[in-house]
Amino acid sequence: MNTNYPAEPFKIKVVEPIAMTTREERAQYLKEAGYNTFLLNSAQCYIDLLTDSGTTAMSDNQWAGMMLGDEAYAGSRNFIHLQEVVREYYGFKHIIPTHQGRGAENLLSRLCIKPGDYVPGNMYFTTTRAHQELNGAQFVDIIIDEAHDSQINLPFKGNVDINKLQKLIDEVGADRIPYVCVAVTVNLAGGQPVSMENLREVKKLCSQHGIQVMFDATRCVENAYFIKEREAAYAHKTIREILKEMMGYSDGCTMSGKKDCLVNIGGFLCMNDDDLYQRACELVVLFEGMPSYGGLAGRDMEAMARGIEESVDYHYIHHRISQCRYLADQLVAAGIPIVLPVGGHAVFLDARKFLEHIPQEQFPAQTLAAHLYLESGVRSMERGIVSAGRNKETGEHYRPKLELVRLTIPRRVYTYAHLDVVAQACKDLYQHRSQLQGMQMVYEPKFLRFFTARFEPVVQKAVAKPSAEPKVAALETA
């Protein structure tokens, strides 16, 4: 087990009390939420690991920047600053601010996709695929096969399979592939990085066929850290240098600033192509706002510009990824199945292996997330069959090989002591996992169902078994 966990590279200036609830209270909260952790209120959660999106603790420097917001409707100085920072750190010529990452995904999809297109990517992401499909494209998974196996331990498990990409080009033609979407890192594979070598190969192949490469750059700084750690040629490069080179192997990106830009709201779309930028400027006014604010206040853009500068600090990113490893090491030592290797923003429990007795159609990851909250107050997120959604043609569930529960660590929010609590909660639940029962979906929205779907247990009550050990009680139906 790794025991070299760095201390927090910050000191705490402001504190926020967190909820301390009883199991009885949590049982009622869970029932009211339809056993969907997304529908719980934050005040009902003890340690909230639902997401790292927008949950960052901003720095004093960012908060100071918030007081310098230029709220002019067009051409604010905060936009000029953000534009300068993006050009300096990422290298892109043009930037269109958006209210968050999916705003950028919407713009990119509308600008580039036509019905009948194919968009290859290194594993789907929920909102990204939804925008692609709504605009008439078919997503094609071109990630390496090993990414779909939680127990294979590879340094760059997020890599694109170049042969799969070439095969798709040969089958459908380059003119039906508007761009290749490369996520750095790959969220649903467990936060897995992509190597610089692989990015270089993808860009070379796409350039030969006139296909654009667009990054989902949401966690690009985490990806840069893994390159520094795992590719020998980059061991002595700075995070900033690696990040700039990474971005050079793309034609643009979508960015959710709520992750690696260290802010609570905001995102942007970047590109180098002048024509695409002009079209984006025309479209953004319909969905977001003026091209120089795109749904954001000036103060939000200032905080994001400063967050980008802070994000490349080695001590910050080293501590962040070390927190993930600290939690993961405790779970592995206890024999709890997780996705290997550990990624940069979360630890993913392998619900399929954790709850081997629950079939996938009874939503084992949803069940596990609900019980983890019930027993400990720790909120997590399902990333399995519920998140995967349905095939719009057949109506059948997509059945991903990875059925996961994501324990997502917010940036600069929790300490190692909080992670000790999470680890112990997982251990306690694992000891009594055989008592857990599956769920059925009782309400299913048309789009992105994992956000608002509602569930109830398949069986109302578990059979009590005499034991001196504490029991995990069955969830009650609404």
From TrEMBL:
Keywords: Lyase, Pyridoxal phosphate
EC number(s) reported in the record: 4.1.99.2
Group of enzyme by EC: lyase
InterPro entries attached to this UniProt entry: ArAA_b-elim_lyase/Thr_aldolase (IPR001597), Beta-eliminating_lyase (IPR011166), PyrdxlP-dep_Trfase (IPR015424), PyrdxlP-dep_Trfase_major (IPR015421), PyrdxlP-dep_Trfase_small (IPR015422), Tryptophanase_CS (IPR018176), Tyr_phenol_ly (IPR013441)
Single Gene Ontology BP annotation: tyrosine metabolic process
Annotated positions of the N6-(pyridoxal phosphate)lysine modification: K259
GO molecular function: tyrosine phenol-lyase activity
Pfam family, one: Beta_elim_lyase
UniProt cross-references to NCBIfam families, sorted A to Z: PRK13238.1, tyr_phenol_ly
Name the record gives this protein: Tyrosine phenol-lyase
Organism encoding this protein: Simplicispira suum
Name of the gene this protein is made from: tpl
